[in-house]
Specification:
homodimer; 3 domains; Rossmann fold; alpha/beta; DNA-binding; 42% helix; 6-stranded parallel sheet; 344 residues; 12 strands; 6-stranded mixed sheet
DNA sequence: ACGCTTTACTAAAGCGCTTTACAAAGAACT
DNA sequence: AGTTCTTTGTAAAGCGCTTTAGTAAAGCGT
């Protein structure tokens, strides 16, 4: 196994000093064409590639950022991370994507990597309740963290980008009310998670305005994931009387509802109407296509990454959160409720 | 901005040498409890975290691997990468995930990072035709690259894990034939891509065995993506007579077909039957649920990552490819063809 | 012929860690 | 009492690069 060529090897071959090679390669030194050509040839012949760790150690910069998502195999996060990655790569940064699987230890490990200089900045997407450790890490790394899609209590030293969750919940519920639904349940995100709280508030406000007091059993808090939502849907279907419509706190939750409905032979939207939240492009292909509150996913990813990189480059920002608008995308999962059998 | 604590600061505070700190932290030195306690305290008080680049430079190892996928926002690759990541993280490696967007330059850039020592190994997923550059890089980095889900011509110095593509294509087509279809089209992957070639061979073999000579217009080569497939489906629907069934080379392609069908009011499976390839869990939720050839996605990701890490740790392997079995998962997108109107 | 500027570089330090080689002090053995 | 072994460390080199400070030589004006 031949040793990899170092800058010294190149220098020797080009008959100059390593300094010259380094400075010339990095554009900090003008050299006459003959010398430049010698270096160029040496680099090519030795197939020289600067050693990444050495370069980064020396420069004191990692030229990389990290993106933490709850689960990269969730399409929503994959889309978000994909857009952020595109922006970061375009500005010359390497990107590490980590799945936290909602374990706070895994998230904290990413902060360790930030402190270790392994990355210059962190784009954080988290959707579980923080016990305070996350907030404290965020405060301890000013100018290095951007939070997107969610808020973290006490994380207000970092820029945050998220959407009009309350409005989204309100619009989703209004949409269902407009079709004549009254018993509208909500399967939302976990306790202590800002987006979940706000979306539920929107739902509650729309219900109240319509003169309906939601039964406590109509509000279920769950993970924003498919699997747990299938069980929550079962629980709702078992109610007597069951709800005629469900506002799901995420498209993944809506998928869980659809799975259970299909399994039980419950037809959407004939037997029950469904509205999701996220607005994934793929919603169009489900049976039926899923009506949903669309988040500007690309904008979230792009703005977050841009802000992070600007901060890494020394720009200062305060922690004012940016709220992006949401939009109802009506597809095929909502219909008028079945006429109730008039009892007795 | 206070400077970050270095190993020297810890050493000073604990009244020992940096050597002692380093060796004690890394388990290479037994120390009496009193000294150990002093170091432990110093580390805690200074919130010390070893500098990643320095450590890696010094050790000559990156303790990280890279995963290259065509597009991380494609659910199939996200699943594959997610599983591989899980394995790599469990063995103490950092993971970088890159989207190549099928640009060979982006893939080559990942090889540069490998040569630069930024990562110790590369898990490569590529699904476009190689012009030879990929194969040459693979050869130049023996024991550092594992290829999964696909084959690369000339990449036979690296371990490869992929599936029984020919059998998959054959089974998919047999399934459609069994329902009585005769005009079965195939929208497959791009020219020069091994999996596409093999899946098409399976399709052709099943057709031939059934005594059918596929019309050239029934075979379309495309990207394994949704968007281009929508146009290919249009092309097939415009044929006279149109095919009564389509074998799609990937689930993404099948999604493209479904999109176009929905747009044109063509009902699946009544008007046309459809079989995909990949077996994504989400297929169950489409309208109709998509029949597909399931790949063992988790196994591909896991085996690939395990093999790569074993090689990084010095184990030797030859380039014998490993073929994993596929399985037809029948859902709801296949039915018997409509009775043909008898002309005249 | 002398100083001054420009060109074309180089020497050496330093980034923060690990590792190899070695040493002082005390314990145990002869 | 002298020797050896064990314990408890340390000094210094080195990983491969960048950067700061500086210099030798050539060109130029007078």
């Amino acid at each position: 196994m031949t040793r990899k060529a170092t800058i010294g090897d190149v220098a020797k071959r080009a008959k100059v000093s390593p300094t010259a090679v380094s400075r010339w390669l990095n554009g900090g030194l003008e050299l006459p064409e003959t010398t430049g050509e010698r270096i160029r040839t040496a680099v090519r012949e030795l197939d020289y590639q600067p050693h990444a760790q050495a370069r980064r150690l020396s420069k004191g910069k990692a030229e990389a950022i990290g993106i933490v998502v709850p689960d990269i195999s969730n399409a929503f996060f994959a889309l978000l991370a994909g857009e952020a990655e595109r922006v970061a790569v375009a500005s010359g940064h390497d990107v590490m994507i980590w799945s936290s699987r909602n374990r706070i230890e895994r998230e904290l490990a990413c902060f360790d990597r930030l402190r270790a200089g392994y990355i210059d900045g962190l784009l954080l997407i988290t959707n579980h309740e923080d016990d305070g450790r996350l907030a404290s890490r965020i405060r301890s790394m000013p100018g290095r963290v951007v939070i997107i899609d969610e808020d973290v209590v006490g994380g207000d030293s970092a820029p945050r980008f998220f959407v009009e969750n309350e409005t989204g919940g309100y619009e989703a519920t209004k949409h269902l009310l407009a079709y004549g639904h009254r018993r509208i349940a909500h399967i939302g995100g976990p306790k202590g998670v800002m987006s979940a709280i706000e979306r539920a508030q929107g739902w509650r406000r729309a219900m109240t305005e319509a003169g309906i007091t939601p039964d406590p059993s109509w509000h279920i808090r769950t993970e924003y994931e498919v699997e747990p939502a299938t069980r929550d849907a079962e629980q709702l279907f078992a109610l007597d009387p069951p709800p005629t419509a469900i506002f799901a706190g995420s498209d993944a939750v809506a998928l869980g509802v659809m799975t259970t409905a299909r399994r039980k032979g419950i037809n959407i939207p004939r037997d029950i109407s469904l509205v999701g939240f996220d607005g994934m492009p793929i919603n169009d292909l489900f049976g039926p296509p899923l009506t949903s509150i669309a988040q500007p996913i690309d904008d979230l990813g792009r703005l977050g990454a841009e802000r992070l990189i600007a901060m890494i480059n020394g720009e200062k920002f305060d922690g004012t959160p940016t709220r992006l608008p949401v939009q109802l995308v009506a597809r095929g999962s909502v219909a008028a409720p079945l006429k109730e059998k008039v009892s007795g």
